[in-house]
């Protein structure tokens, strides 16, 4: 029995690439953070996302994913919490002001906050649960989770850096307060739009 299946490795890398580089709550917020705070100040946010996804993947590997199978209500609670927190973040982004503000008025997401956010990030849960159940890099479920955690970190960190970097490159263009306000409102709306799959599921259960 081998620890790692080399034949399944390309699929794992491709899955991590596609899921981490495409739009979602993390990348939308990183783009907005790059614009509003610059790349250097966004680094703790970037690092927290990467570590948060790794910890989430490892937690699924040690059995947390099974809890959702045996107690489906837990996933509903998670979805409701995700919707509430993402709406709050959308409001914070949408009401952001100028790039230059007084010290202490605004700040990027902190390292530990970015880690904690992954636990209510619906896309992060989709990533790790799908990886745990459909990608078989190892015959051992826990070892499979460890392997995918490493891949998510190695592939995902450069991908999310692109979003923060792109936002930073846009700072000069968006130095005008009116343009920045339009951008932040657009980012807030994108964040809200990312919730529609969860909202449809919740409404379907309530009907």
UniProtKB/TrEMBL annotation:
GO terms for cellular component: plasma membrane. It is a multi-pass membrane protein. GO terms for molecular function: amino acid transmembrane transporter activity. GO terms for biological process: cysteine export across plasma membrane. It is found in: Cell membrane. InterPro entries: LeuE-type (IPR001123). The chain crosses the membrane at residues 44-64, 71-91, 145-170, 182-200. The keyword Cytoplasm does not apply. The keyword Membrane applies. Keywords: Cell membrane, Membrane, Transmembrane, Transmembrane helix. This is Cysteine/O-acetylserine efflux protein. The gene is eamB.
């Amino acid at each position: 029995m081998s620890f790692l299946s080399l034949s399944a490795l390309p699929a794992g890398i491709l899955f991590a690439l596609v899921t981490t580089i495409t739009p979602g709550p993390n990348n939308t917020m990183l783009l907005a953070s790059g614009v509003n705070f610059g790349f250097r100040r966004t680094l703790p946010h970037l690092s927290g996302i990467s570590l948060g996804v790794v910890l989430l993947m490892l937690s699924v590997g040690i059995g947390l994913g099974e809890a959702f199978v045996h107690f489906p209500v837990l996933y509903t609670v998670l979805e409701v919490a995700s919707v509430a927190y993402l709406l709050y973040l959308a409001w914070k982004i949408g009401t952001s002001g100028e790039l230059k503000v007084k010290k202490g008025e605004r700040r990027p997401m902190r390292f530990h906050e970015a880690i904690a956010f992954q636990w209510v990030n619906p896309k992060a849960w989709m990533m790790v649960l799908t990886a745990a159940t459909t990608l078989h890099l190892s015959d051992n479920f826990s070892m499979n989770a460890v392997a995918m955690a490493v891949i998510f970190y190695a592939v995902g960190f450069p991908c999310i850096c692109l979003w923060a970097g792109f936002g930073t490159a846009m700072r000069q263009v968006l130095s005008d307060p009116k343009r920045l306000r339009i951008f932040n409102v657009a980012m807030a709306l994108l964040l809200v739009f990312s919730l529609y799959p969860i909202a449809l599921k919740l409404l379907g259960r309530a009907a």
